[in-house]
Amino acid sequence: MEELSQAIEQYKQESRQGAGGRSDPYHSARQNPPPIVYSKTRVVECREEVLRRHRIVAAYDRGEFADGYQLLRTQVLHRLRENHWNVLGVTSPRAQEGKSLTSVNLAITLAMETTQTVMLIDADLKRPAVHTLLGFGDCRGLADYALEDCPLEDLLIHPGLGRLVVLPGGRPIQRSAEVLTSSRMSALIADVKHRYPARVIVVDLPPLLVSSDVLAFAPSLDALLLVAGEGMTTRQDIKESLALVRGAVPVLGTVLNQSGKDQRNVNAMRALAAN
To answer: What is the per-residue pLDDT across 107-151, written as a single tens digit (0 to 9) for each?
Structure first.
């Protein structure tokens, strides 16, 4: 809990600086991140009504719920930077607990920083959801890269949100663990990891307790974030999930996702103590 307390205090200090008329680095970056010219990457501007409908609050909200993602960003960046990591997987014990929602909102919040670019990869190949949350519609993605040798540059999408690039999941496939452990997939992660050292890679993964995909992909990850759905995830689910990945990949912590409609409190999204 000590690291969480430090993160909270750091965020409060940033907020006070902004309120006092001084420079607020995060808020400034969020409003006007330095432009990046995407000469090859396809640009698909996200429609605000779609983002609002899917609760992608990091893209438009300035309220308390978006503040929760800012706090999560501070916590995550602190842990990644102190360990020189840049590949973060996001998962949950079971389906429908908010992992994809957390992945997208966290990636956008990170992409509003001026110090790094962000790549969001949808690796939930059985049930890809990132393209739907961002309003891309059906599109090719990671599955097409792995199975049909599609060039990566033809699959990447810039959604017009900060310094973010998205690699959608593409068409759903059932033999996803084999794809995630393929040499082509390993080469992809190694390439994007080392080519841009200042890039943070957020990987939306399948649920831990319903498939072997996360463990299959673990060697490509630096760290893992576990999402728990309020009123859905049990303590036993969390214990089993943590036991499953122990020794395979470090777990930064657990994020409580409040999926109800009344989302006015910053505590609706908070990083809990890492194990």
So the answer is: 999 999 878 899 999 999 999 999 999 999 889 999 999 998 899
Q: Which residue type sits at 171?
A: R
Which residues does 46 contact at the CB level (< 8 Å), separation at least 6?
56, 59, 134, 135, 159, 160, 161
Farthest CA pair distance, the chain: 54
Inter-residue contact 205 to 90 (CB < 8 Å): yes
Of 34-38, 191-195, 265-269, which one has max mean pLDDT? 191-195
Q: Which residues contact 127 (CB under 8 A, 6 or more apart)?
A: 95, 172, 206
What does the pLDDT read at residue 149? 85
Structure tokens at 63: 């309220």
User: What is the C-alpha to C-alpha distance for residues 47 and 267, in angstroms, rounded to an integer?
Assistant: 27
Domain at 44-271: CATH architecture: 3-Layer(aba) Sandwich (3.40)
Per-residue pLDDT reduced to its tens digit, 43-55: 888 999 999 999 9
Taking the C-alpha atoms of residue 50 and residue 65, their distance in angstroms, rounded to an integer, is 18
Q: What angle do CA 183, 185, 187 make, to 5 degrees?
A: 70
Helix (H) or strand (E) holding 179: helix 176-180
